[in-house]
């Protein structure tokens, strides 16, 4: 199978404002359109508006209790 390469740069939607931007070395904020959109996205991660789904992580107290239980039971299985 042959793949044809075009000279047209890749165009993507800014994750923050959905504006079309070129994905190339001339855009230091890629995939974002601007520094503002990049900082807004970072702020959303910082205040936990953006999250990766999954089970919550164990905190230290839960881990200590699990290890103590394993010691009483003769080890982890």
Automatic annotation (TrEMBL):
Q: Which NCBIfam families match?
A: PRK00418.1 (NF001638)
* Record's cofactor remark: Binds 1 zinc ion.
Quaternary structure, from the entry: Interacts with GyrB.
Q: Which UniProt keywords apply?
A: Metal-binding, Zinc
- Ligand binding (Zn(2+)): 14, 17, 33, 37
| Protein role | Inhibits all the catalytic activities of DNA gyrase by preventing its interaction with DNA. Acts by binding directly to the C-terminal domain of GyrB, which probably disrupts DNA binding by the gyrase.
Q: Which Pfam families match?
A: YacG (PF03884)
**Name of the protein in question:** DNA gyrase inhibitor YacG
The keyword Cell division is assigned to this record: no
Matching entries from InterPro entries are given as: DNA_gyrase_inhibitor_YacG (IPR005584), Znf_NHR/GATA (IPR013088)
According to the lineage, what is the superkingdom? Bacteria
Cofactors (names): Zn(2+)
Alphabetized HAMAP family for the sequence = DNA_gyrase_inhibitor_YacG (MF_00649)
